[in-house]
Amino acid sequence: MTTTLKKISTLLTASFLSLSMVSTSALANGEIGDHVNNLHAHIGEYTEEVHWLESKFGSVVDAYASKDKNLKTDALMEYWEEVDFHSAIETQYVPIYASIWQGIYGVKVAIDESKPIDVVREEQEKLNHALWQALGAVKLASQYQQRGLVDQVRTTEVEPTTGPAVIDDIKTRLDRVVAKYAEQLNEVATTLVHDTYLQRFEGVEGDLIAKDADLVEALEKDFNVTLPQAISSNKSVDSVRDVVEAMQVKLNKARALLVEAEKGRKDVF
Amino acid sequence: MQRRTFLQGLAAAGVLGSVPFSLAHAVSAAGSVSVETLPKLEGDLTLYLGRGEGGLYENVLDAIKKRNPKLNLKVRRGGSAALANTIVAETKAGVKRADLFWAVDTGSIGMVTDSGAAKPLPSTVTSQLKDGFQYPSWSPVTGRVRTLPYNTERVKPEQIPDSIMALADSDLKIGWAPAYSSFQSFVTAMRILEGENATRSWLKGINKNAKKYAGELGVVMGVERGEVDVGFANHYYTLRLKSGKPDANVALAYTNNDAGCLVNASGIVALSEGDLPVNFIRYLLTHEVQSYLAREAYEIPLVQDVAAPEGLASLSSLSPPELDLRKLADLRPTLNMMRDVGVL
């Protein structure tokens, strides 16, 4: 198993546990159905779709290389939105979903800005890499599903009820922020940050203050200043992802503190 | 500081239904009861639960369920205001799905009591609550108060005005979090109590001498580090900080009968007739649950004979303003004003 796949495997285990928190409202594209709850039966179809996407994206870049005047880069998004693989990866592994959108816009912007073909090909390479990485993640997910290790993706949101579960949900939501930003839905991304803070982080910060007030203050700043500013100032997707990944490291620490706090708590009665 | 007896509480805050304040107070007070004295809960109950203190409300529910194995408790969770809207809509449509509604703020409770969905509570329940918190159609559970955390090395308590409005004319360096929802509710209260012009002037005055923070814990931390002399924050940030760092250079001051010492409360409403919802409410008012929420969440217990969190002034020494807390939902004019003045 490559390092990348190992990382995906670890993250998938964590993200599967929070799959039930995916709501239909959070999914911009695609219905939840058999193609996400019975991945194994659809792996062949997804593999075909990745080949098809690679070929379609390639045709756009080839058209640019041949100076085709009828070239429309919006076709890149249309191809991606056409495939079932789209919702499979969106529900299974949001970080790569974000990378695919980042790749699509990388190619689109390079063409729209009339960059040299070598630059466009470089972006295309990154996009193809993200697609195959995504297929690897979905294959792995199908194995977990077959072994019954994960719940089905639900169409209604389930609220986390413990402090550690809230932190897991926050991390998933932050991945979704990066995905929405990569999709160039800045307002959706900003609203998601705001809602995550108000609906999730505010509920656990009280317990954390006594344990590590500096950590809570840093996360408050991240939620209210650093991340919204990174989005509103149109920084690169990688910059926004860096902010989120730094927050997720702090959130891991917060989670451990909440687990400890719960162990030391006296019973209600 | 001038103090007056804490009589008004939330009764004067207006979430009283149609019962006059004096009548709400006519009920004689009883002490808190132990869970050991309560009847067992049996049957089906659906609770709409507003998001609150992380897992602590869930721990309370789990403990109640564990103690009452024949209780089939279903919980729907969401934001308090959203759930209140749902209950109002369900009531209008004649579809009743919830038997109880536990909300984190009084504004959401008010929406439900106004809609006529709330069932009256017996005096044996309401009389357990402290003076000023006894209402016929809902029960407060715990409270929180606006405070002025100050740096004990930089400021003496007597230097802090007991009027929130006077702070704008002081030389004190102030910490605030204008983007924070609790602060915006507090400014809304000021707008309602003091008027648009006075609030606008106050915001401008404070802004000259203020340092901005992202959140109110940040304010308390800034005060503790000595970056500012005094700040605006709900009481529990300071108490929680002090619990983790007892020698922190921060203490609490309170203003007198104005928005600066506004009290808000979580509360519960029975939406179905019968003993079961009422008896469920009795569990939340037990000495054990009230002490648990005071100890673990630093919330203010509102039942008789239950100690407040350590470090907080007694309720009887506070003097919150008379204000219908339901009006705090009217946030838009506040945000417009704050943007206009340039603090947002």
TrEMBL record, chain A:
Signal peptide segment: 1-28
Keywords, in A-Z order: Signal
Protein name: Orphan protein
Species of the source: Alteromonas hispanica
UniProtKB/TrEMBL annotation, chain B:
Keyword terms of this UniProt record: Iron, Metal-binding, Signal
Phylogenetic placement of the source organism: Bacteria, Pseudomonadati, Pseudomonadota, Gammaproteobacteria, Alteromonadales
Organism of provenance: Alteromonas hispanica
Binding site for Fe cation: Y236, Y237
InterPro entries, per the entry: Ferric-bd, TAT_signal
Pfam families hit by this protein: SBP_bac_6
Protein name as catalogued: Extracellular solute-binding protein
An example Gene Ontology molecular-function term: metal ion binding
Domain of life: Bacteria
Signal peptide: 1-24
